[in-house]
Specification:
The chain is an alpha/beta fold. The protein has helices at about 30-40, 60-65, 65-75, 85-95, 105-120, 140-145, 180-185, 275-285, 320-325, 355-365, and strands spanning about 10-15, 25, 50-55, 75, 100-105, 130, 150-155, 165, 190, 195-200, 215-220, 245-250, 255-260, 265-270, 270-275, 290-300, 305-310, 340-345.
Length: about 375
């Protein structure tokens, strides 16, 4: 049948980590334009020679648009089935199908790496992975380096179809020292063609791209939603033509965007801002930490202080909170170091792999810092 390009194509809902899920309606036009954008050489760069494994549910922004991009390029598309969180299954599937490119959230890669380390298996056809949905710890990237797999951070949202930026700094590795590269590869990356972005202060004034100024991140483009499904207006669409992402970010002179926090997750301690994402990244660098989350919690002196919640990794049964806090020294500002560490067996995740900080706040609502 003939279909008008602006007709509805798909309806996805936001993950609802900070509020109620909202519907985002995609048109055929926006979906195809997004697919074209993701295929650009400095984006996903998919070709007919690739075998792509999206370890992402179809309900998570249409598996990040891969089911549309791969047929356009003529790439082979492999779906993981219902065991996408099982490292052994993924390793076997990657090797049997000759997967060259895969995409998923950090928890997926932690499971795969754990299996590769314990079994001695390799995934020699795999050249690149894209990590999104949550901040990627440097330890994941460095572990994949040992398997000759490039790790690229991608950032986007359901409202963006979803891809907005991609970090391909690995292609410019020679420009950086080891220390510089470790920092730049953690960033969300540069906007792909079709996506415009800016950061603004509380009064809506645009901030410089100097890598230091941070503010609310706004985006616009042909595949970015102009409103939510069956909702009359929203604060996120208050400025004509722009969508406010709810993220706090910096953008450096080279155009690399870095998320410092979700607006609702930023911690304000003694009048100063603390980035929970940077603290989490530093904590997961500890070899005995599998996952970490930071929430702001009431403090009688400082109003709010960071509480670090940790899932121990393999062999980490004896690691203490004091050891983990000690490992943060020199990696983050001294006053950013959390006031306390609590251990849990697992963190609550949404169906798309994001940590549910609303649930963590509920679980630890009665926690009290020792003053």
């Amino acid at each position: 049948p003939e279909i008008e390009e602006k007709q509805a194509c798909a309806l996805c809902y936001t993950s609802g980590t900070t509020g109620n899920p909202k519907g985002v309606l995609y048109s055929h036009r926006s979906t195809i334009l997004h697919a074209y954008g993701t295929l650009m050489p400095d984006a996903l760069g998919i070709s007919r020679k690739d075998v792509v494994l999206p370890i992402v549910p179809l309900f998570h922004v249409n598996a990040w648009g891969n089911p549309y991009a791969c047929p356009i390029a003529g790439a082979k598309l492999v779906f993981p089935g219902n065991k996408m969180g099982d490292g052994a299954t993924l390793a076997q599937l990657i090797n049997e199908e000759g997967v060259t490119l895969s995409a998923g959230v950090p928890t997926v890669w932690l499971g795969l790496l754990a299996h590769l380390k314990s079994s001695g298996m390799r995934v020699d056809t795999l050249r690149r992975i894209v990590v999104g949905g949550a901040a990627c710890p440097l330890s994941i990237m460095e572990d994949f380096d040992t398997y000759d797999v490039d790790t690229c951070v991608g950032w986007g949202m359901t409202e963006m179809s979803p891809l907005g930026t991609l970090n391909n700094s690995v292609a410019e590795r020679d420009k950086y020292s080891d220390e510089e590269f470790a920092k730049v590869r953690l960033k969300g990356g540069r906007p792909i063609y079709g996506v415009q972005m800016k950061i603004v202060d509380d009064e809506g004034r645009e901030l410089p791209w100097d890598g230091a100024a941070f503010g609310s991140l706004k985006v616009r483009g042909p595949w970015i939603c102009s409103n939510y499904y069956k909702l009359d207006g929203s604060d996120a669409h208050a400025e004509e033509g722009w969508f406010e992402t709810g993220d706090v970010a910096t953008i450096d002179p080279d155009g690399y965007m870095a998320i410092t926090d979700r607006t609702k997750d930023v911690i304000k301690s003694g009048g100063e801002w603390i980035s929970s994402i940077e603290v989490e990244n530093a904590a997961t660098d500890h070899p005995l930490v599998a996952e970490a989350a930071v929430i702001g919690h009431f403090h009688p002196k400082w109003s709010e202080r960071p509480l670090l919640i940790v899932v121990r990794g393999p062999g980490g049964e004896g690691v203490t909170g004091e050891e983990i806090l000690k490992s943060l020294e020199g990696k983050i500002a001294k006053w950013w170091i959390p006031e306390a560490v609590e251990f849990v067996d697992e963190l609550p995740h949404t169906a798309t792999g994001k940590v549910q900080k609303t649930k963590l706040r509920e679980v630890f609502k009665d926690f009290e810092f020792q003053v």
